[in-house]
Amino acid sequence: MIATYPLPVYLQRFFTERLLTQMQASPNTIASYRDTFRLLLKYAEAQTKLPPTELHVAHLDADIIGRFLTFCEEERGNSARSRNTRLAAIRSFFKYVAGCEPQLLHHCQKVLAMPSKRHEKRVVDFLTRDEMEALLKAPDQSTWFGRRDRVLLLTMIQTGLRVSELIGLRVRDVELGTGPHLRCMGKGRKERATPLRADSRDAVKAWLAQIDAEPNDPLFATIRGAPLSRDAVERIVRKHSVTVALTSSTFRLKRVTPHVLRHTAAMQLLQSGVDRTIIALWLGHESIETTQVYIHADIELKERAMALTKPIDSTGGRYRPGDELLAFLEAL
To answer: Please, which pLDDT band fits residue 300 given cuts at 50, 70 and 90?
Structure first.
């Protein structure tokens, strides 16, 4: 079996035929799958002492994949959620192989049967009104970079765009006339328009006047005009978060990331009384259930619900069983 099914052949077909041609997967999906298999191939090379070009499908069995996932958690420090993302990419590949080669069905089923790891679902982090204002004041407005960073942070906080959606914005995607909004291509290749508040509209308008860019130019770019990378946006958020943390005790306790700014946009909508169906549409969620996490995070909403309840007037007392058998069970 090992000598019959070379791994490079199936892996190349998986990316070119299945993902790119048949599924038309997004660039983000391709990049995520690519990174998973780069790590897996390097790990398999270390374990089998064979270069990736000489590996066969049977070399990647459930045992080595299980050890690889453990390696990702323990050695690379990946979370259980990241581990499950890696496993999902591997499962997709073996599902493809099983359909191509029925002889490998039993081998593939062992990998497909590997369970995802359960993980804690923590309450999402978000910024309060004071923290938002402090973050927007952090960039130095006397510099080009500071002016860019403030407009970028304001746009993220108000629109809730994902980083991939933000760095994909072009000047042509901005509409500042009646009904100002930004157009973006979201997850699952779904195009959506996100309204701009008056302050965000004015900030973006001033930024466009300053950069004097062409329609196909990126809305947020480097000093040389190149689109910002995901890492660059994360550095910008981290840089100004560190500045705010020097003077804010509450900010110091939070790990602020671009996704926290997305959560902040959702919480602003929720606390303003916007229905979660609209919030799901605003954020480009596939399912309304995804928006449920913001309800769990909103302590003010829970406090308002508690205020509607009535206190119990009766005085509590200890239960006293009236039967010997019940007393026996109570004493256990």
So the answer is: low
CA-based nearest residue to 78, from 49, 45, 119, 113? 119
Predicted local confidence at residue 1, as pLDDT: 44
240 is catalytic: no
Contact 194, 282 (CB under 8 A): yes
Give the relative orientation of helices 129-137 and 144-159 as an angle to the nearest 10 degrees.
Answer: 160
Of residues 282, 3, 41, the one with CA closest to residue 160: 282
* The one-letter amino acid at 27: P
Between the alpha carbon of residue 21 and those of residues 97, 188, 230, the distances in Å are 16, 15, 26
Q: What is the CATH number of domain 7-113?
A: 1.10.150
Q: Which of 11-25, 119-133, 218-232 has the lowest mean pLDDT?
A: 119-133
Clarify whether 122 is annotated catalytic.
no
State yes or no: is 294 an active-site residue. Answer: yes
Indicate which residue of 107, 148, 162, 276 is catalytic. Answer: 162
Q: Is 192 a catalytic residue?
A: no
- pTM of the prediction? 0.68
Quick count: other Cβ atoms within 10 Å of Cβ 257?
16
* Residue 285 appears among annotated catalytic residues: yes
| Integer Cα distance of 150 and 148 in angstroms | 6
Copy the structure tokens of residue 120.
């804690």
Beta bridge partners of 104: none
170, 181, 187, 254: which one is catalytic?
Answer: 187
- What residue spans in the chain does CATH classification 1.10.150 cover? 7-113
Residues of the chain with CATH 1.10.443.10: 129-306
Cβ proximity of 216 and 172 under 8 Å: yes
